[in-house]
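Researcher: Sequence recovery benchmark, item below. Answer with residues only.
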């Protein structure tokens, strides 16, 4: 079978694309044009199936008792109140149960630090929460680690209580995307499961007062199916699928995920995320695919069009390949075609360091095949079974070499490093010599990922 190439969209007039579908070994094809959709579907005779995933009972392997998923109309179990949760509020982190909330309504707002609609909604709630006239409990919930969650909370000036590092509530209320809002009345009955849209001062006052609300349920989102609704494609025969949507799609969540496919297939999805966020996610993957470390300065934005860069886009992809370089380049090209940007890898002349080979580089002999690391920036760094690009990333830190490092060793395997922290290049090289390597100052053309407007746009 020939190597698959991503199809190039044909722009027929402003914001409108000819969209193609191909069927190998068949004469059938389908074309559709739309003002906001770029779509490519391919069907092949050799098919695969996307396994439907259903919520399962918790195994208890993490020390928790078996947790049953709760649905609308069900009453929360006693264990819901007695589990211990990690709260953050007004600068304090506390471990406590929900028992003190029994008998009063609760609204849980599931969020993530990378979810811009989550943050926008929380800021709106934060602005009116103290103006409520009825008593109730509004609690944000995230699985983010403490440092990430608190950094977001403090940066955004939020004073709402939030549960962080959640492992429990997401099992009671599993969800494929955020924001996810759960409404529980004073009797402990789950009344609603919605998006962030109904979160208004009026609705919160009414719900906390015990009034019945007619709220639109959040649509069920099955990430195993194509994102675009209305596609009459049997998931058991879908072989290759490409989709770009421009603008916020109110019937879709805000999410980033990969599908669990059989060997030989690649899938990734960005749903309702800012264009610049998707570019930022893809750039490090391109560097990793060519075996180079990625640094913040390797990502450059050469446009002041903040409105377009922050416009939500949806990119959904399923293709029969596992080549990360071609797939990530293909996704950038799809975004470029839909957005009018010319983002991608370019060369830039820069003063840097080059890693030279001065002897035999011992290959890692780590038994488990996994990266093992012990990093103490006050004393020493120990890496075992580290990709050389990862090791160069560590060495480029200001506390060590302090410059971008180009790998000219020709070595692409994994290495072990055991070095004491020093920013003295001679002392650092004395340690690297034991691994058959040396750093030298140089000027080189290095790869950078540049986001800029295409010519003529």
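Model:
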């Amino acid at each position: 079978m020939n190597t698959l190439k991503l199809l190039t969209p044909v722009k027929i007039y402003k914001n409108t694309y000819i969209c193609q579908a191909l069927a190998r070994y068949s004469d059938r094809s389908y074309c559709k044009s739309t003002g906001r959709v770029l779509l490519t579907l391919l069907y092949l005779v050799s098919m695969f199936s996307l396994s439907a995933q259903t919520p399962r009972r918790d195994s208890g392997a993490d020390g928790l008792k078996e947790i049953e998923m709760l649905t609308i109309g069900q009453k929360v179990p006693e264990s819901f109140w007695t589990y211990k949760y990690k709260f953050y509020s007004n600068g304090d982190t506390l471990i406590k149960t929900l028992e003190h909330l029994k008998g009063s309504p609760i609204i849980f707002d599931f969020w993530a630090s990378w979810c811009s609609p989550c943050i926008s909604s929380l800021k709106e709630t934060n602005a009116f929460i103290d103006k409520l006239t009825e008593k109730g409990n509004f609690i944000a919930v995230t699985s983010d680690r403490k440092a990430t969650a608190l950094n977001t909370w403090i940066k955004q000036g939020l004073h709402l209580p939030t549960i962080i590092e959640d492992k429990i509530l997401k099992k009671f209320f599993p969800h494929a995307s955020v924001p996810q809002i759960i409404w529980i009345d004073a009797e402990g009955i789950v009344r609603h499961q919605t998006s962030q849209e109904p979160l208004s001062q009026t609705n919160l006052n009414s719900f906390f007062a015990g009034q019945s609300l007619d709220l639109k349920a959040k649509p069920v989102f099955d990430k195993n199916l194509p994102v675009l609704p209305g596609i009459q494609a049997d998931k058991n025969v879908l072989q290759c699928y490409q989709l770009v949507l421009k603008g916020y799609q109110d019937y879709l969540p805000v999410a980033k995920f990969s599908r669990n496919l059989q060997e030989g297939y690649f899938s990734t999805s960005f749903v309702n995320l800012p264009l610049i966020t998707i570019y930022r996610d893809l750039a490090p993957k391109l560097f990793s695919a060519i075996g180079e470390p990625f640094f913040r300065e390797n990502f450059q934005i050469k446009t002041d069009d903040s409105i377009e860069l922050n416009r939500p886009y949806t990119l959904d992809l399923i293709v029969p390949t596992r080549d990360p370089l071609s797939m990530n380049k293909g996704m950038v090209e799809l975004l470029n075609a839909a957005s009018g940007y010319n983002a991608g890898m370019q060369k830039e002349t820069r003063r840097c360091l080059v890693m030279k080979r001065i002897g035999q580089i011992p290959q890692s002999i780590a038994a488990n095949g996994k990266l093992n690391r012990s990093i103490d920036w006050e004393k020493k760094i120990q890496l075992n079974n580290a990709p050389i690009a990862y090791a160069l990333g560590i060495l480029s830190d200001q506390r060590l070499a302090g410059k971008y490092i180009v790998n000219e060793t020709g070595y692409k395997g994994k290495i072990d490093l055991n070095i004491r922290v020093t920013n003295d290049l001679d002392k650092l090289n004395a340690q690297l010599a034991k691994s058959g390597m040396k750093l030298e100052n140089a000027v080189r053309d290095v790869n950078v990922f540049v986001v800029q407007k295409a010519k003529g746009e």
